[in-house]
Amino acid sequence: MSDVSIDLQSWVCPAPLRDAPNIVMGHGGGGAMSAELIEHLFLPAYGTAADAGLGDAAVIGLGGVRLAFSTDTFVVRPLVFPGGTIGDLAVNGTVNDLAMVGAQPLALSTAFILEEGTALQDIAHVASALGTAALAAGVRLVTGDTKVVDAGHGDGVFINTAGIGVIDDRADIRPQRAVPGDVVIVSGDIGVHGVAVLSCREGLEFATTIASDTAPLHGLVSAMLDTGADLHVLRDPTRGGVAATLNEIATAAGVGVALDERHFPIPGEVRDACGLLGLDPLQVANEGKLLAFVRPADADRVLAAMRAHPLGAHAAVIGHCVPDHPGMVVARTALGGTRVVDLPIGEQLPRIC
Amino acid sequence: MSDVSIDLQSWVCPAPLRDAPNIVMGHGGGGAMSAELIEHLFLPAYGTAADAGLGDAAVIGLGGVRLAFSTDTFVVRPLVFPGGTIGDLAVNGTVNDLAMVGAQPLALSTAFILEEGTALQDIAHVASALGTAALAAGVRLVTGDTKVVDAGHGDGVFINTAGIGVIDDRADIRPQRAVPGDVVIVSGDIGVHGVAVLSCREGLEFATTIASDTAPLHGLVSAMLDTGADLHVLRDPTRGGVAATLNEIATAAGVGVALDERHFPIPGEVRDACGLLGLDPLQVANEGKLLAFVRPADADRVLAAMRAHPLGAHAAVIGHCVPDHPGMVVARTALGGTRVVDLPIGEQLPRIC
Known about the structure:
Radius of gyration of chain A: 20 Å
Protein name (chains A, B): Hydrogenase expression/formation protein HypE
Largest interface: A-B, 100 and 100 residues
Distance between the termini of chain A: 34 Å
Domain Peptidase A2 (chains A, B): 221-256
Number of domains of chain A: 3
Largest sheet of chain A: 7 strands, mixed
GO molecular function (chains A, B): aspartic-type endopeptidase activity
CATH class of the largest domain in chain A: Alpha Beta
Oligomer: homodimer
CATH superfamily of the largest domain in chain A: PurM-like C-terminal domain
Family (chains A, B): Belongs to the HypE family.
Number of helices of chain A: 8
Pfam families (chains A, B): AIRS, AIRS_C
CATH architecture of the largest domain in chain A: Alpha-Beta Complex
Helix content of chain A: 25-40%
Strand content of chain A: 15-25%
Structural class of chain A: alpha+beta
CATH topology of the largest domain in chain A: Phosphoribosyl-aminoimidazole Synthetase, Chain A, domain 2
């Protein structure tokens, strides 16, 4: 091992990793434990080979264009859920990572880990959904890989997609650009994907008409850019939900975020299911929604453009950036009080994407 | 599902998939069963969303440059083996996919699937090896993802890497360019990686000094291009070994390949281990070797340039392309006979990469 990497002889699990010597489900939740794993294990291990903050999409200058490059692995269970499958999730998840830096997706790779004994019919089903989602998103499937692992060492199908896209000339979108005064907009109903997947989990089935919101968001982003607005930040609130995403942005930009819970678009069925299960809807995953930070002067026309787009019909202003409490997200509750919206620590809903 | 994808109502597992309704380990072996899975399941499922043949690396024109884009998932067991770990394999595997179309690697994504209960120390070990390998290969780790699956649904660590690179202006390298007369060169000793991994498999341990040949090959390819030779085909013979790779090239180009077994650089220990285990060294995986198809007029200087490079010191001519038996690979044996070198059907060595 080179001197830029972890010294394995002296490496001990650092305290911030919650004193756990082993991986627990919470490390995959997209919250504080996931962040600690990256900060205290992966980044020191990668040393100077790591570039930037290992964000959702990297930006690479190349021959006069800005290329976006991103990867995401999907381990959702079950493979098929109301409104979607692991296949379309694998397309839309990576397309959205690209869209959140202002890129139009160009090409995807697809890499499958198949478990011995999985029915070919089931694989055909999710691969077909993947192909259909790629056509719908206008992205080409250009390269792939397939591995097989022994029964008991996988879970049917895991899919990784990586994607490349070309960033719109008009876009300079990154978490660090959030500034006090920015208006925070969400593109529609939140908590829908997580509740849809949970509703069909073995041992947990409950009746709901909620279907996953999985969708590709680059068309919506284009419509927002077409307004001429200077979009400061875009992020899709997936694992860890709106709570995790807003906390990450607040920390990255060193600003506070003040929300008003009365303005959150949360469907009644999501609210009911979260109440029943003891979940915070702000921590529940979405797969077809985005959060936008824009200047107050741009907010009205961005909101109007979003509402005119099928994927932004329920867009709403949910809060704004403030100079106070940098790195913190607070919300005025429906009862008029104020609460801190924490970064989730571990795993509220395991294997949701 | 759209009409371009598999009609799931009428889809039945096609006969070429060996009449198996379920995934078997052989589908991941890189041989005939892997090819059937792609041809009869993935490509029909993807429909018109699939571009080109889902080869190891896609070539994408972008702003005046030719971009190479590739993905590979690593499920090797054990995670640490003589000469390497899953971490450096994950770097070199994808770097080599890029190098085989003549690209210099630019950036990699890394995506981990971690199994609940895995020791953080073990993850730090392979992540550190990954970082060190990336530095050695001169490639940046620019974006990543981490997922956690429940104990019993993973196997410690799986890693996917996707990579992008810029293709050398001098290169037009693809399997279809093989023509009768081409000289076939291998860059060094074959069968080394597979035997190294097998030697430490639980229940199969045997004493050997063989260490994996895992290495990044883009520097060697540069040295070959520097000769001014027109390289027709390059491929790294990983899963399925030299046998699978040569069969794929023969099929893609519609040429025959005639080998001479007496010229194969096979270390004695590899030969002995293969004899003991009943393996064909031509079907054993390599992770730091390449096969090159070049014009006869270019062969001497390409071979000289390879031998002058540390990763090509044992380079040797092993055969040539012929107009006879298109799509078939035959070898003159050490005893003077001739045998057909088949595309392996299934899995000789499961989870070798």
